[in-house]
Amino acid sequence: MLPISTILRTGSTVWTVSPDDTVFDALNVFTERNIGVVPVVKSGELVGIFSERDYARRVGLLGRDPKNTPISEVMTEKVITVNSDDSIDDCMKIVVSKGFRHLPVVNDGELTAVVSANDLLAQVIRSQEEEIGSLLEFIGYGP
To answer: Which DSSP state fits 87?
Structure first.
């Protein structure tokens, strides 16, 4: 299967927050950029990830004040990452087995992208459609 580099958008910005930013700051990024997860970066290093799910479970349900709660207190710290050479199949196995919706892509220690489960699934479907088309053509049912 193809490496995930084939589905990454070149030149796209990876929106991040710092551990010292507040939850409110992250929520603003979610809203302004129409995203549901932000990597947490300190001095160029990925130190965590914060998602809408983290907000719901660690802030909203506990009644914490988003304006006074630093991301460092509520982020997911143990982040599984992939690199752009990893296969789409391997990435799909990770998101399915771990129940993730997003995977940070780190190359040579630098956060370069975030790939979503939807991005991966869309490529799997495209690949299967192409393979089915080729098989149909081979047996004489295709164009």
So the answer is: B
Q: Which of 100, 98, 125, 87 is nearest to 4 (CA)?
A: 87
**Letter string b/e over residues 43-82, b meaning 16 or more CB atoms within 10 A of that residue's CB:** eeebbbbbbbebbeebbeeeeeebeebebbebbbeebebb
Q: Which fold has domain 14-138?
A: CBS-domain (3.10.580)
Residue count of the chain, please give it: 143
Reduced to 3 states (helix: H, G, I; strand: E, B; else coil), residue 56 is helix
Spatial contact of 17 and 73, defined as CB atoms under 8 Å apart: no
The tens digit of pLDDT for each residue in 93-130 reads 999 999 888 999 999 888 999 998 888 888 777 777 77
Global pTM?
0.82
pLDDT in tens, 50-93: 999 999 999 998 999 999 999 999 999 999 999 999 999 999 89
